[in-house]
Amino acid sequence: MPIPGEPLPGDAPSADPLGEARSALAELLTDAGRRRKRFSPMMERAYREHMLARARNVMRANTLRVAVFYLFIGILTFEYVKMMSSTVTGNFDLILWTGIYLGGALVMSAVTLSARKPALHRWYGYTVGLSCYLGLVGLTVTGAAFLSPYLNQQSTYIVIYLYMIVYILSTLPLLTNIAIGVGASLTSLLLIHFGGLSLDIVMFAQYAGLSNVMGVAIAWMLDHRDRQAFLQERLLDIEKQQLNLLSQEMARLSREDGLTTLANRRYFNETLAREWAVAEREQQPVSLVFVDVDHFKPYNDTYGHLEGDNALRAVGKTLKSLVRRPSDMAARYGGEEFVLLLPNTDQEGAMAVAQEVRDAIDALQIPHRGSKVAKFLSVSIGLSTLVPGSDNSISTLIDQADEGVYAAKRAGRHRIRAFHLLKSRSSAHPE
Length: 431
Prior knowledge:
The protein is α+β, with helices and mostly antiparallel strands. The protein has helices at residues 17-30, 41-61, 63-84, 92-116, 124-144, 149-169, 174-194, 201-255, 265-282, 296-303, 305-322, 347-364, 394-410, 419-424; strands at residues 286-293, 329-334, 337-343, 379-386, 416-418.
């Protein structure tokens, strides 16, 4: 079955990778009997990294609590060992206990350091595994070395407790935990035997064997639970990504023209209002360039509406390519009419952009047999520039640019008209 992030050989790129990943995760969640078997190598690595990261976070968050607890246990057991040590054993048991306690502190310090230092994070799993192994072997062997039979017996309980810590809290892979637990038991048995220490083989087999069996069972159940939680967390992350993408797509559709992918009229109006406010505050000019496709109805009648749509797309793509500053905007104003918003652009700059637009549309050379102006698709352009003030408004800017378009049409189309020139040369021919 497909696993998230691992496309099958020969498959084409998925149109909806998040949807496929979600389906794959949902299938794994409902297939509890084969969940472990069906974790891909990639997902298994992600799961292991997730578990180790969680363990490091827990260790970092509880470092002080663990240190205080360990210190409390040390004070408590020190007095207990001192009290249980007989005059025959002298200080040997107390010295041995001190060695065990300091060794445990050293092991815990190594684990804590690898959890807290980012440079050592990659070694955290190895540090935990080695610490668990050395802790089990060290405590089992030194526990057998106590001269006091009572302390010798009590140390076995601590060893059992340590076995449970290894299997339950180490967050290492189950097979690694088994290797540590069984390996530590066999190593301890050999060291005790060749070290000449006293050992009740039957009791050792009972508590070591039972500890490993119980530890494996508990670790398997915890691993099963953690894998399910991991899958659910990933599923929630994917659903969150899908919702974010859907929200972004809805926002895009709400401000984009479906045919040309330019800004639509509503988004243009919102942007114009925002830029107008900025220009009013900074007393900077705002320019509008209205672009109207000449004789577009005859074009549709001659070539059909599909070709008409293609022509509008070509015009829109051209306008988008001429928008170079982040604050500039190209929008479809309606039908065959487009608009360029040019904040902080004076009349001369707007005229230069308008000429670029006209030349770029001409360069497309889209055939237009129905045009009375040229053999190819052409545009009429009107522009206006204002510095926002008390004597004008956004409507003034739009009306003036629109008037420029009508003036260009009256002059024979395929023209550029600036509103300020219309005021002073209302009877003149186009420049």
